[in-house]
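Notes for week 9. Today we move from apo structures to complexes. The key idea is that a small molecule is not decoration. When we ask for a structure prediction with D-MYO-inositol-1,4,5-triphosphate present, the ligand SMILES becomes part of the input, just like the chain. The input block below holds both the sequence and the ligand string. Read it once before you look at the output, and try to guess where the molecule might sit.
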Amino acid sequence: MDTTDGHCTEDVKMEKKMDNDFSARLSDATHQHLSISEGPSSSCRRVRGRLRSKPRLQTTKSFPPYSHCIGGLGEDSDSDNEVNSESNTAHQPNLRNEETQGTERKEDTKLVARCARDELKAKWTMRRKERMGGSFEIDTDGWERGRWIGKRRVEASGREKESDDEEGEEKHRRGRNPNAETEINEEEGKERKSSVVSDIKETCEGSVETPGGQSKNVFEPLQLREGSTSRQWSSPHPILSKLLHSSTSNSSCSSINLSSTESDDVFTEGEDADSKRKAFRKCRTWKTYLTMMHWSLRRQSSWVQLAGHQGNLQLSEGGEVLKLYSEVEATCLDCLMRDPLRPFVPQYHGLITRGEHCYIRLEDLLSGLKRPVIMDCKMGVRTYQEEELLKARTKATLRSDMYQKMIKVDPSAPTAEEHAQKGVTKWRYLQWRDTTSSTSTLGFRIEGVMMEDGSVQRDFRKILTLAQATEALLYFTRSQLVILKAYHSRLLALNNALKNSPFFGTHEVIGSSLLFVHDHSSKANVWMIDFGKTNPVPDTRELRHNVPWAEGSREDGYLIGLTSLISSLSQAISVASWQQENHSEQDKTGGLNNTQIQDQVDQMAAVTL
Ligand SMILES: Nc1ncnc2c1ncn2[C@@H]1O[C@H](COP(=O)(O)OP(=O)(O)OP(=O)(O)O)[C@@H](O)[C@H]1O
Ligand SMILES: O=P(O)(O)O[C@@H]1[C@H](O)[C@H](O)[C@@H](OP(=O)(O)O)[C@H](OP(=O)(O)O)[C@H]1O
């Protein structure tokens, strides 16, 4: 455990206390991995004497990334309807805002109309130049330049919009514990692009509705504070209106893959090549223009869905994460906005209806991060609710999909009866997942990790020991001390908040995750997400969260998981410190270079497997 600063000393004290609290309750299997043994590895003979012994992790395995790139799963195809339907209802919750912003709106509308005209002009100028082989530089005024710079940036390097950085900066300030988040490499951009058009875009999707369709200002103070969804335009400029309409309905491109999908609407399946060519000629002008606008309107975000049900979540044009409505989750979020846990939970902005579905509007926790690295840890010693166990006993529904998932991982996992039925109950499947991962032993499991290059690693689910978890954390953070320490502090702060949280005391938290996010500029944070299976405990009982589950107790073991994670981070900090020290020692003595030392470290890690 690194104790180089005062906060860390505090951390150690707190952690020791927590370890004592829980040590009696953790299983032997868990505890045998809590200590890190010191001692040189046999493979280290060549550098022995020069390198301090690496804290050894027991029974570890390494996790090379494999290339499985994913993009955002969000589909915004319903937003077309939403623009129409909401333009009628959206005024109700925001009347007060409308009055106060009337003047501003007139100004903006004028500006928007001018911008749209200028856009057209710019487009034709560009096309003329393009045909003549001229340069693409458009320099009529700052607005167009800003947009075009933006477009080139997206095309050339996929870099993110600077304005988002500022927004993200604000968010990370809000959510962090002073020690939790370290921003050592402040290389944030200086220019802020005009956001008039994206503001209007947000306006079109910004009404807050109850599932029944009635407009309701669920979190007015929040909306005012965040300021992203409060303005309404009754009639945008006709050209702009068309653009908004079209680009909204065609905004199914993922947040990573910025390819436009306009052509999907133009070319439906079954059309012959000729009609496609004709249609393309007809639509090319608009297509080019819409593609340009698409880039302009879409807020650049690095959002991806790492785990969970595919299609449940999507990114809205306004940059919020929309999650399919669940009454249980919405109720929890509502409570959490008034609980000490609020700084650890994405901001909840109420509900929104898109097409036939209702969604929960959440702050995008990845906004402001450049090429984020993400880890989803499912918390608790079980991921099934007690009701699922009762259901499995009384009226068992067999799930063939779960049986298939089971035999894919381990053909010998199902019983003879389950093989014969080719199905398992949900409880059986979830329990099998829990016992074949670190859920049962450590009280958490790593559902998935996405690295900076977009590669996704899900094999961490098979981790069973704390040492393996530590290895995974070192891999996930690339052994960066600053990140590991930020996560460590944030988890200690979360531990404190949980102790003071009335919500936590009275809720059974099942299947909820901690989302770890950081990027190369050392922004790092941890958030509580997914309250779809979090329910108030039936009577007035308070849960302890740090004891193993027994049927009927409703205990979830959330704090067992948190303690394990904190211990694992401490181990990772020790190892990373050791690595760093040896790097600098070698640098001073002019001995092995960094690559050679890393080779040694890798060899040592391999021997401890
Ligand atoms: N507010 C958010 N900001 C950014 N990303 C988010 C946010 N909420 C969720 N995600 C992403 O979506 C993924 C799934 O989220 P979540 O766990 O809420 O979905 P779910 O479908 O309920 O999951 P499960 O199947 O485990 O119940 C997370 O791993 C994360 O990558
Ligand atoms: O990740 P896996 O191994 O694919 O398994 C899923 C995972 O356990 C989800 O948490 C669970 O949803 P809930 O958390 O909502 O129960 C889902 O059940 P489902 O298929 O019934 O949605 C499982 O299929």
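Residues 303, 305-309, 312-313, 321, 323, 346, 362-366, 374, 376, 511, 513, 515, 529-530, 532 surround adenosine-5'-triphosphate (ligand 1) (CB under 6 Å).
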